[in-house]
C-alpha cells in the first residue's frame, strides 16, 4: 500500500498573512520552535508513516525552502525509488505559473503518470501537527473510497476559515463548503463544525481525470476546496477521516495548527513553552526531523556588570549565548546573543539576532540577522512600534529580516 502511494506536498503559497516573515521565504520555510521549519512537520509525518516518494511543489520565493530540503531532507535512497524532490513551475502546460492548488498538480501530471502509483496523498506544507498517514491510507482502502479527506472538529466561530463538511452515519461526506459565511454545525454539537484539514487521498485514475476536466472549465479557480471536491460528491464516494482517531504506534495528540497569521504563528510557538505542551517535541518515537547546523552548545555567562545570564521557561537553541541578560518565556534560535542587563519576555528571536546591552523586548518576533542596539525598547510603546515595524491585530511586533536601526553603523 505505501509503496503504491505518491505523496504531493503543496508548498508554493505566498503566505501574505505572515508578512513580513514571508517577505524573503515561502511560508513552509518559516522557522518554528527554535530549530525547525514549518514544512518539517509534514515531512516528518511522511518519514514516520513509511512514505518515501514525495514531490514538493514549490513556487513563491523558494530558494530558502529548496536549500532546506537539500540540506535537511536528502536522506532517501533514489536507487530504491525513494526521494524528496522539489518541483518548481515548469510551464509544461502553458506559459503561466501555478494558478491554484489543483492547477499545481495538473501542471505536473506527467510526474504522476510515470510514478506508477495507485493512490496519491496530497498535503499542505504549512501546518503544525503529527499524523500517521499510513492509518488514513488503510482507512481509504477499507471504505472503498474514491477520495478521503482528513477532518477535525473546530469551534463554529472559527470554521469560516476552513472547508466545512457534513457527513452521514457512515462518515461519507454529503456536503463541502469552502470558507462558508455560515458554517454548518455538527449534529448534536451546535458550537462545533467539522473542518477539512487540507489532507486528501485520491485514487490515481480519478485524480488524473478530474484535474484534466477541471483544466477545461473556464469558470474554475482550479482549487481543491472551491472547485474539485464539491463537484465530486454527487458521483463519487468521498469519505471523511477523523483526525486523531487512528490507532497505531503513537498515541494521537490531536494537535493541529494552521499558523497562517502572525498571531496564530506566535501562539503556536508559545504553546511549546507550557509545562505540558499539547505538541510534545520531546516525543522519542515520533521525532521531528530538520536540518541540524553544526553549533556549539548554548550557554549562559556573566555579563560585564557581573550579572549572571539566565533563562526561565524558554527554548534556547545551540550556539545561543546569554551574557548577563534575562530571557523569560521566549524562544531563541541558533547563534542568538543576549548582552548584559537585557530583558527578554515573550519573544521569538531568529538565527543570529544580537540584542545590545540594556535592551528590553517583549511580545515580539525578530527575524534573522537583526542587531538590536543598546537600550532599545520593543513591545512597550504600540504607536512607536507601528511607525517602524509590523504589529499584528493581537499586538505582536515583528522586526523584519536584516532590519537596520538608525543608531547602528
TrEMBL record:
Pfam families: Hexapep_GlmU (PF24894), NTP_transferase (PF00483)
Every Glucose-1-phosphate adenylyltransferase/Bifunctional protein GlmU-like C-terminal hexapeptide domain range: 296-399
UniProt superkingdom: Bacteria
Residues annotated as domain Nucleotidyl transferase: 7-273
Primary enzyme class: transferase
Database matches in PROSITE patterns: ADP_GLC_PYROPHOSPH_1 (PS00808), ADP_GLC_PYROPHOSPH_2 (PS00809), ADP_GLC_PYROPHOSPH_3 (PS00810)
EC number of the protein: 2.7.7.27
Residue numbers binding alpha-D-glucose 1-phosphate: 98, 163, 178-179, 196
Associated pathway: Glycan biosynthesis; glycogen biosynthesis
Site residues, Could play a key role in the communication between the regulatory and the substrate sites: 59, 97
Family matches, as InterPro entries: ADP-Glc_PPase, ADP_Glu_pyroP_CS, GlgC_bac, GlmU/GlgC-like_hexapep, NTP_transferase_dom, Nucleotide-diphossugar_trans, Trimer_LpxA-like_sf
Catalytic reaction equation(s): alpha-D-glucose 1-phosphate + ATP + H(+) = ADP-alpha-D-glucose + diphosphate
Subunit structure: Homotetramer.
Family statement: Belongs to the bacterial/plant glucose-1-phosphate adenylyltransferase family.
HAMAP family, alphabetized: GlgC
Function: Involved in the biosynthesis of ADP-glucose, a building block required for the elongation reactions to produce glycogen. Catalyzes the reaction between ATP and alpha-D-glucose 1-phosphate (G1P) to produce pyrophosphate and ADP-Glc.
Protein name per the record: Glucose-1-phosphate adenylyltransferase
Organism: Thiohalobacter thiocyanaticus
Amino acid at each position: 500500500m505505501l509503496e503504491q502511494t505518491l505523496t504531493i506536498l503543496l508548498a508554493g503559497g505566498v503566505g501574505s498573512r505572515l508578512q513580513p516573515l514571508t517577505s524573503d521565504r515561502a511560508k513552509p520555510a518559516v522557522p518554528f520552535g527554535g530549530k525547525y521549519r514549518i514544512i518539517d512537520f509534514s515531512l516528518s509525518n511522511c518519514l514516520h508513516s513509511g512514505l518515501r516518494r514525495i514531490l514538493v511543489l514549490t513556487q513563491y520565493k523558494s530558494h530558502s525552502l529548496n536549500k532546506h530540503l537539500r540540506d535537511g531532507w536528502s536522506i532517501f535512497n533514489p536507487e530504491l525509488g525513494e526521494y524528496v524532490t522539489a518541483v518548481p513551475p515548469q510551464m509544461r502546460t502553458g506559459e503561466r505559473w501555478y494558478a491554484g492548488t489543483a492547477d499545481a498538480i495538473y501542471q505536473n501530471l506527467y510526474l504522476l503518470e510515470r510514478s506508477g502509483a495507485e493512490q496519491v496523498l496530497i498535503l499542505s506544507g504549512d501546518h503544525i501537527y503529527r499524523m500517521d498517514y499510513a492509518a488514513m491510507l488503510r482507512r481509504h482502502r477499507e471504505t472503498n473510497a474514491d477520495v478521503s479527506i482528513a477532518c477535525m472538529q473546530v469551534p463554529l466561530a472559527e470554521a469560516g476559515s476552513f472547508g466545512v463538511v457534513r457527513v452521514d452515519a457512515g462518515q461519507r461526506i454529503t456536503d463541502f463548503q469552502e470558507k462558508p459565511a455560515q458554517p454548518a454545525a455538527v449534529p448534536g454539537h451546535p458550537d462545533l463544525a467539522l473542518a477539512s484539514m487540507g489532507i486528501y487521498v485520491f485514487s490515481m485514475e480519478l485524480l488524473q481525470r478530474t484535474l484534466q476536466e477541471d483544466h477545461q472549465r473556464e469558470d474554475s479557480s482550479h482549487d481543491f476546496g472551491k472547485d474539485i471536491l464539491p463537484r465530486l460528491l454527487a458521483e463519487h464516494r468521498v469519505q471523511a477521516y477523523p483526525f486523531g482517531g487512528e490507532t497505531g504506534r503513537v498515541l494521537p495528540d490531536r494537535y493541529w495548527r494552521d499558523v497562517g497569521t502572525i498571531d496564530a504563528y506566535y501562539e503556536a510557538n508559545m504553546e511549546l513553552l507550557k509545562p505540558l505542551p499539547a505538541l510534545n517535541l520531546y516525543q522519542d518515537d515520533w521525532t521531528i526531523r530538520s536540518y541540524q547546523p553544526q553549533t556549539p552548545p548554548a550557554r549562559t555567562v556573566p555579563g560585564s556588570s557581573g550579572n549572571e545570564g539566565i533563562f526561565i521557561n524558554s527554548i534556547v537553541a545551540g550556539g545561543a549565548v546569554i551574557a548577563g541578560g534575562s530571557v523569560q518565556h521566549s524562544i531563541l534560535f541558533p547563534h542568538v546573543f543576549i548582552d548584559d542587563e537585557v530583558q527578554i519576555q515573550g519573544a521569538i528571536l531568529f538565527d543570529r539576532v544580537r540584542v545590545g546591552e540594556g535592551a528590553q523586548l517583549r511580545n515580539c518576533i525578530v527575524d534573522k540577522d537583526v542587531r538590536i542596539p543598546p537600550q532599545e525598547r520593543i513591545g512597550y510603546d504600540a504607536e512607536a512600534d507601528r511607525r517602524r515595524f509590523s504589529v499584528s491585530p493581537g499586538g505582536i511586533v515583528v522586526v523584519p529580516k536584516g532590519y537596520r536601526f538608525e543608531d547602528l553603523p
